[in-house]
TrEMBL record:
Organism domain of life: Bacteria
Pfam families for this protein: HTH_1, LysR_substrate
PROSITE patterns linked: HTH_LYSR
Organism of provenance: Pseudomonas hormoni
Name the record gives this protein: LysR family transcriptional regulator
Keywords for the protein's UniProt record, in alphabetical order: DNA-binding, Transcription, Transcription regulation
Annotated HTH lysR-type domain residues: 1-59
């Protein structure tokens, strides 16, 4: 029995929640997965996984064994990379999750730069705004905007995103364009509802202080694209990262307002599990993201000349 291969299969079963999913992920026969786990359990003399017709769960021994496997496999990967060509040309599958807007508007258009530099890395990108369980879902790295971070993950700051307040031309014709916060009486907003149920109104920075403003609303939305669609439909003011509205503003579909009292910046952060900290694939991707965020001409910043 190849113990390292058996450990890799075991960790993938835990991360993906099933034998079949692990087999598909590792591209090996499902029967081989079952045989390797039986051999591993026989070798250790303990049961690692509790199998039922509905789910796979860890036994107490399995729960203790899993983090040790993760560390050993990460150390093995890094050790091999140090003494092989993979140090300079890493290879393998890299699973990254990020908000749909960042992926669609910024990362994927620039991705040919990354794949040309690292042609042996296969990138699998998940686009969504929901929280991701990196361990269970087998994700190597996530990009997230905002200050709410998971303390169990390694966080690497990428950039502070500019945010803007905007509305549709039709809405501003009906309600007039506000020149200051005092003009917001009689206006309305689109409310954003996060996946955890938290509701977001408007926020402004006035003389260095954060000032929240809640206006009446007729529509609440739980997706970033839907949030902007409701704004374009004339339901009120919204606040969003500049990259997400830059094209709409340039094309006239949205109009920026209250530029003198901007929303607070939004930190964009790369997050990954501690055991992936030594992964060469994760490191080169995060380094590339830092380069991308610093490149002139991107839409992370409202005014490129002000950087």
């Amino acid at each position: 029995m190849d113990r390292f291969n058996a450990m890799r299969v075991f960790t993938r079963i835990v991360e993906l929640g099933g034998f079949a999913k692990a087999a598909d992920s590792l591209q090996i026969p499902r029967a081989s997965v079952t045989i390797l786990i039986k051999q591993l359990e026989s070798h250790l003399g303990v049961q690692l996984l509790q199998r039922t017709t509905r789910q796979i769960s860890l036994t107490l021994d399995g729960a203790a064994y899993y983090p040790r496997c993760v560390r050993l496999l990460a150390d093995l990967e890094e050790t091999e990379a140090v003494f092989s060509a993979a140090r300079h040309n890493p290879k393998g599958l890299l699973r990254v999750d990020m908000p749909a807007g960042i992926g669609r508007l910024v990362v994927i258009p620039a991705l040919p730069q990354f794949t040309a530099r690292y042609p042996l890395i296969e990138v699998e990108i998940g686009l969504n705004d929901r929280p991701v369980d990196l361990i269970r879902e087998g994700v190597d790295c996530v990009l997230r905007g905002g200050a709410s971070l998971d303390d169990s993950l390694v966080a690497r700051p990428l950039v502070m995103l500019d945010q803007v307040t905007c509305a549709s031309p039709d809405y501003l014709q009906r309600h007039d364009t506000p020149q200051g916060l005092a003009d917001l009486a009689g206006h309305q907003m689109v409310e954003y509802v996060a996946s955890n149920g938290k509701r977001y109104g408007l926020e402004f920075v006035v003389d260095g202080q954060l000032q929240p403003v809640n206006l009446p609303r007729h529509v609440s939305v739980n997706s970033a694209d839907g949030y902007l669609a409701a704004c374009e439909a004339g339901y009120g003011l919204v606040q969003a990262p500049y990259y997400h509205v830059a094209r709409r503003i340039r094309e006239g579909g949205l109009i920026e307002v209250l530029r003198e009292v901007p929303p607070p910046g939004m930190p964009l952060t790369a997050l990954y599990p501690p055991h992936r900290q030594l992964s060469r694939r994760v490191r080169v991707f995060v380094d590339w993201m830092i380069e991308l965020c610093a490149q002139p001409g991107n839409d992370f910043f409202r005014d490129q000349s002000a950087r």
